[in-house]
Amino acid sequence: MELQLQLRKQQGDFLLELDLKISGERIGIFGPSGSGKSTLVNLLAGLTRPDSGQILLDGQPLFDSSNRVDLAPHRRRIAMVFQQHGLFPHLTVRKNLLYGHQRCPADEQRIELAEVAEVLEIGNLLEQKPETLSGGQSQRVALGRAILASPRLLLMDEPLSALDDDLRYRIIPYLNLVSERFRIPFVFISHSLVEMRLMADQVAVLEKGRLAGLVSPEQLARQRMGQSPAGYINLLELGVPKERQGLLAFPWAGGELLLSGNAGTERGMFELSSKDIILCKRHPDAISARNLLPCTVRSLFEAGSKIGVELDCKGGTLVAEIVPDAARELEVTTGSLIWAAIKASAFRKL
């Protein structure tokens, strides 16, 4: 999927002015509140009209002011998933799901209810009303309704922000599975760095109505490390653990990581802040941290007033952060050997 934008939209004191060409199946739009993300979503969907410019989707003009093209929303075949699910309260889940499907021309209907219900694990909810659903179930139904319209593009405007952390990270696998299973490209809008890294392959960064950069999610996370209170978030896929002296030993990168007992007993994705990794020049004689990992410095990068240290821990990658003085005292350079100390309580399951 290729998206080309050259547009201008004035709304009160706010001006969105973009010149952007981006391609891929998993595109992210990142920026703080007020940067223009939701305005852009409405322009793409046809809910708002640009003052001037053009919007091309795979070469087809959805809007072109010079040629007086402005396709109606239903002709763009773009489906939307919002922060709030927006299900019709008087309809069953089945009828909510089929709402867009029944309005899609027969020759464009390529996705069936049974398959969507299976992928989203909502087959047992079809005869229920929205008021009986949990937040996660409601969001899956809203996603299913959008998919059944057989769209050429799926717009997801902060679809996880209304959910708590537990539900948020349980919904993300469904979002990715839908894209892969039904081959629907998507534009994912969020102000969360972690969500961007889990959902997008390429990210357009907006600031004050302008394009501030076009980067990979990893580049974005490293650039923002020094600005974020949480630092850089390491995302670790850990295997099934074994109990060991009151802790849980999770397999990782050919070795293991020791986590506190509240980490659960199942495999999954865990986050670890760069701020929670202590670097030592030599193996410490005594330390309370339960994880002591011998690592090689793979690279260094600057992020504001901090130095990011990319570590190769026997095949596993971690990013730690230190101040420049510490980097000099520890003689941290590319290729140098160093020890990483991490508390068992520093990990958080997603």
For the structure shown, list the relevant keywords.
globular, 37% strand, alpha+beta, 350 residues, 6-stranded mixed beta sheet, 5-stranded antiparallel beta sheet, 9 helices
Determine the strand fraction and express it as a percent band. Answer: 35-45%
Radius of gyration: 23 Å
| Number of discrete helical segments | 9
Which structural class do you get from the secondary structure elements? alpha+beta
Mean pLDDT: 92
Number of strands: 22
Write down the overall geometry. Answer: globular
Helix content: 10-25%
For the largest beta-sheet, the strand count, sense and barrel status come to:
6 strands, mixed
Give the strand line-up of the largest sheet.
7-8-9-3-10-11
Instruction: State the end-to-end distance.
Output: 30 Å
Low-confidence stretches: none
Report on the structure:
The chain has 350 residues and is of the alpha+beta class. The strands form five sheets. Strands 7-8-9-3-10-11 form a six-stranded mixed β-sheet, sandwiched between helices. Strands 2-1-4-5-6 form a five-stranded antiparallel β-sheet, with helices on one face. A five-stranded antiparallel β-sheet has the order 17-21-18-19-20. Helix 3 packs parallel to helix 5, helix 4 runs antiparallel to helix 5 and helix 5 packs parallel to helix 6. The chain starts with a strand and ends with a strand.
